[in-house]
Amino acid sequence: MPTNAQSCTNPRQLFTVLAAGAVVLLVVHGLGRFIYTPLLPYLVDDGQFSAANGAAVATWNYLGYLMGAMLAIRWHRIDQIRVLLPISLAVHVITTLFVTQTDTLTLIAGSRWLNGVANGMVFVHAPALILEWLVLRNRSSMSGLVYIGVGLGLLVSSGLVTGSADWLNSAERWWPAAILSIPLAWWGAVKLMRLDVTERKQEDTSARVTTPLLDRASIPLFLSYAGAGLGYILPMTFLPLLAKLELPDNHWMLDGTWLVVALCTIPAPWIWNRLGAKIGDLLALKLNFLIQLLGVLFAVVWPGPMGLFLCAALVGSTFLGTVLLTQRIGRALHPHQGPRLSAATVALYGFTQMVGPWLTKQWLDMGGTLVSAFGIGVAALAFGLVFVFFVPRPEDWHASRGLGS
């Protein structure tokens, strides 16, 4: 029961659980998904594939992420998570090992698709399991700290790619991520599978669903989130490649762009969590969109080191804030839709992230430049910012419907 669970919970337990969640997100996001970003210019230079084909590989990975999130909507019960979470982490390890063995584009794309499926499921399941454990201990406000693992994953991926750049080639470049994933995935899975989470709590939560997921309050929030997903994914996929195209050889920003993104991402969950608490989540989300929009815009209108640096810093410091604030506003609008809302937002984000690289590939195939393709991100973030202004304050929304605050 919550009282007993809370009484036997100590800071070391809390740290271990949050650390395990952060580690599995580091594995699937940092060593699975986003390590591809700093790897991409090296793989193109190695002749493994072209920039356009690299965009296609990214699209397959993001399609897998979307499918994984949708599967997580279907299989969201605690007993199902206990089975699927370790399986998903094993799939990540196997597919990462597989891409160390092939230079065939079709096999790489297929493996990255399956890796994306595992990523999407872990990204929904791990935080959901931890949230249920924290709720039983009246510590749910700490759940967002697991996302620090994403920022740490970006930093680790930057170090692995840069550190091994001179002595690995083509498919071999995936070896550091594969080797590191094995112990981290195993440790995180073992810790999370031992969590004491009662089924009754999950069932009670599901039974209280009384409001539709989509209505006049949540639709503009979902539309704004769609704009955010499409807007941020272009720099998060192609920024190091853009640096390779714009900067001279041996410039520190060739690898430095991803390092800047990583360093700015690590404190972002804490910063936006605090800012939302101080000025309100909706106002914080508007500010978040504006800063992120300016970041992508700088890469378009200010080519070169300064534009790349500002894009890396501003996007890195905001994109996780968009996730946290949007999910928190959504939960406030629909407090009984927690698991479905989380999975639905991840699925929506996954869909728009898939569209971004696909649009970029079409643009490059038509003769467009990569820097001009970033204009798609600027337009998407502007679209998202506009729709944030149509999202009502949760307390006003509930009051207007006679539900109180």
Automatic annotation (TrEMBL):
Provide a Gene Ontology MF annotation, just one.
Answer: transmembrane transporter activity
Q: Which residues form a coiled coil?
A: none
Q: Where are the transmembrane segments?
A: 12-31, 51-71, 83-101, 113-136, 145-168, 174-192, 213-232, 252-271, 283-301, 307-326, 338-359, 371-391
Q: Which UniProt keywords apply?
A: Membrane, Transmembrane, Transmembrane helix
What's one GO-annotated cellular component?
plasma membrane
Recorded topology in the membrane: Multi-pass membrane protein
User: Could you tell me which PROSITE patterns the record lists for this protein?
Assistant: SUGAR_TRANSPORT_2
Highest rank taxon of the organism: Bacteria
Instruction: Check the record and name the InterPro entries matching this protein.
Output: MFS_4, MFS_trans_sf, Sugar_transporter_CS
Instruction: State where the protein is found.
Output: Membrane
Its recorded name reads: Uncharacterized protein
